[in-house]
Design a protein that fits this description.
This protein is mainly alpha-helical. It is 76% helix and 1% strand. The protein contains 24 helices and 2 strands. A two-stranded antiparallel ribbon has the order 1-2. A hairpin with a 7-residue loop joins strand 1 and strand 2. Helix 1 packs antiparallel against helix 16 and helix 9 runs antiparallel to helix 12. The longest helix is centred in the middle third of the chain and has 31 residues. The radius of gyration is 29 Å and the shape is elongated. The two termini are 45 Å apart.
């Protein structure tokens, strides 16, 4: 029995669809099919040759939301222009020396692939496209140097046509409002963060929940970027989204610091923690639809601050008040920015920082270089007429899948889609379309296949094969103003396609294969180096940068640890969460020091120096000593309340550092040993 899903929207009736298919998936498939056929019709009318690229481009840039489509479209256009320009330079310089041409082309693809690994989202795709567009135009132009400029212009024109057509259809026929989607996802994220805080305050083990919530923070930021590309209202609220995310991350760090401090003691859960947990439960379950609802939730958290302290408060009372303040204020700030997403109030810029894997950048660039050289060598030595197409496909595969967690698996999915596209194109070319010269008939015959492919693209289990199918089926059908292709050229094209994808995929197994354990070691090593960097120069870091970079790394670790032994996965996760607390506390501690404050500067500088040296035992000892001294100073009732608060705050952060370093002794020495 097939799974059934009931879907209803403002635009469509409530209808039950089979196989888990939703109406938004059907709309996407029909919309993209119509856009590709429209682009193809216009391209055939222009008659510049190879009109298929207009239709193929529509499927390449097609995305489920308006913002994603527009964002990808603009980066595809930019990548195409750069790639076409570089192809002209390469052919002009090396038209008479094919060996040097392919060497230069491989080097360019290596640079583009390396850049795509360093970039995020569709900026990464633009870098890939600049690489393989140079291969597509350059290889065609090398065979016909006199037509090089015409080829480049035609390719750019058709790709631009496909980009504009898809963007127009996406703007007109994509249901929903980007701002509402962005706000809804942020609401779900804040509820998840509040639930996690509540559970942690009650003493529950929330390590895996924290991990998934941190990963969701980066996904949400990406969704916000796409929404901002599709709506000026969403673009205005994007800064508030980022600020709300960072505030929620700060809240999670403060709660986890408390957990790190008390997890290795036998102290019972304090009454104030249980009360604060109840308040976060109210936030998680409360309404967020109106400003009044949100203000009510803010008031609920405000009441969790506790009573104002008097001048006779002892250290423990100040300590308790400070911990409450850290947790509550971050939660309040997250809700306040959430409330302003729809407003015109400006938000301060929030620095997001992401993990940069230097090893992966180099590895992916070298793999692309050697893969293209190997394919080009095969073409030159074999003199195969379709060898150029194979080289292009290899360039596409090694560039496109370099930024995937596992390029080998992605390539296998692409092979499956290529087989399906060859099958469907063969049926169309030699059974259904041989005598067809009327465009409406061509559209009627191909549309059902394309709609099915579009539906499959939105189903995660078959998304990779479906994307390959919709990309290559137009290439193999080869719609133009002439008759249908003969079997010989069709078979050569299909073989070149399969060999190109298979060869590119094999490169991921032969040249620097994907090793999850190595990825995890690299993430842990990067955390250690950043902690030491904070110790050396805390002023070069901001809280926002540290929290967002660690959230990105925790998400990457989640993807790379799915097949790891449970004990290793848990140990590494707890190490990364402890690192999050240590870095956050070290930065907060350094911010307390004023220029002329030698009493605070001395202990803080000592702890930071120990962190920079990577000696966790000494960090723990030094931080514990500093915390004791700061506690004594905070207990002096002769000091002003502000000064006592400063010392107490510094004591809280030094306690956090001591606790994380003491109970995670390998924390600063996590280059990792090979299993």
């Amino acid at each position: 029995m097939s799974a059934l899903t009931t879907v209803g929207t403002r635009y469509l009736p409530t209808v039950t669809l089979p196989f888990g298919i939703t109406w938004s998936t059907v709309v996407f498939a029909v919309r993209t099919t119509a856009a590709s056929l429209t682009a193809l019709y216009i391209a055939l009318a222009l008659d510049l040759g190879e009109a298929k690229w207009a239709a193929m481009t529509v499927w390449i840039v097609a995305q489920p939301t308006r913002g994603m489509s527009l964002s990808k479209a603009q980066y595809r256009l930019a990548g195409t222009l750069v790639g076409a320009f570089v192809s002209i330079l390469l052919v002009s310089a090396f038209a008479q020396t094919p060996e040097l041409f392919f060497l230069a082309l491989a080097a360019w693809l290596a640079v583009c692939t390396a850049a795509s690994t360093a970039f995020r989202n569709f900026r990464s795709y633009a870098a890939v496209l600049a690489g393989y567009t140079a291969a597509i135009v350059g290889i065609a132009g090398a065979n016909q140097p006199g037509l090089l400029f015409d080829l480049a212009v035609a390719r750019v024109a058709y790709i631009s046509l496909g980009v504009v057509t898809e963007a127009l259809f996406a703007a007109l026929f994509t249901p929903g409002r980007p701002l509402d989607a962005m706000r809804g996802r942020l609401e779900a994220f804040l509820r998840a963060a509040a639930t996690t805080a509540s559970r942690a305050l009650r003493g529950e083990d929330t390590a895996t929940t924290v991990q998934s919530t941190l990963a969701a923070a980066i996904e949400l930021e990406t969704l916000g970027e796409y929404a901002a590309a599709g709506s000026w209202q969403a673009r205005r609220g994007y800064k508030h989204l980022r600020a709300s995310i960072v505030s929620a991350l700060s809240q999670m760090a403060a709660v986890h610091a408390l957990v790190e401090h008390t997890s290795n003691t036998s102290e019972p859960i304090a009454a104030w923690r249980a009360e604060l947990a109840d308040r976060f439960d109210l936030v998680a379950a409360g309404g967020m639809g109106t400003d009044g609802d949100i203000n009510g939730l803010i008031a609920t958290l405000e009441d969790g601050r506790g009573q104002p302290l008097n001048s006779d408060a002892n250290f423990n009372e100040i300590l308790l008040a400070h911990r409450q303040k850290l947790i509550v204020e971050s939660g309040i700030q997250a809700l306040m920015h959430f409330a302003r997403i729809r407003s015109t109030d400006p938000a301060a810029s929030t620095d997001f920082s992401f993990h940069l894997d230097a090893k992966a950048i180099g590895v992916n660039g070298l793999r692309a270089f050697f893969a293209v050289l190997a394919a080009a060598t095969f073409w030159i030595e074999s003199a195969w007429p379709s060898g150029g197409s194979m080289v292009v496909i290899v360039a596409v595969v090694v560039g496109l899948f370099a930024s995937r967690p596992n390029g080998l698996l992605a390539g296998i999915g692409f092979v499956k889609g290529a087989v399906a596209s060859i099958t469907v194109a063969g049926i169309c070319n030699f059974v259904l379309l041989p005598e067809v010269t009327w465009f409406p008939a061509l559209a009627a015959i191909t549309a059902p296949f394309l709609i099915l492919g579009g539906i499959a693209m939105r189903m995660p289990s078959v998304a990779a094969p479906a994307s390959s199918f919709t990309l290559f089926v137009w290439d193999l059908i080869g719609p133009d103003n002439a008759a249908r292709t003969d079997f010989g050229p069709f078979a050569n094209s299909g073989l070149a396609l399969l060999m190109g994808i298979a060869s590119g995929t094999v490169m991921f197994a032969l040249i620097f294969p994907y090793r999850p354990a190595s990825v995890r070691r690299g993430l842990l090593g990067a955390v250690r180096r950043d902690l030491q960097s904070i110790g050396r120069n805390a002023g070069s870091w901001s809280e926002h940068q540290w929290l967002t970079r660690m959230a990105d790394r925790v998400g990457r670790h989640l993807a790379a640890s799915r097949t790891a032994p449970p004990a290793d996965r848990e140990r590494e996760l707890r190490t990364m969460l402890a690192s999050l607390v240590l870095g956050h506390s070290a930065l907060a501690m350094s911010c307390l020091v004023e220029d002329d404050d030698s009493e605070l500067r001395r202990p803080v500088a000592t702890i930071l120096r120990r962190i920079s040296l990577g000696k966790p035992e000494k960090v723990a000892v030094e931080a514990a000593r500093a915390a004791t001294r700061l506690e004594h100073r905070s207990s002096r009732k002769t000091l002003s309340p502000r000064r006592r608060w400063q010392f107490a705050a510094a004591a809280v952060y030094t306690r956090n550092v001591a606790a994380t370093a003491r109970f995670n002794r390998h924390l600063l020495e996590i280059e990792g040993k090979k299993p």
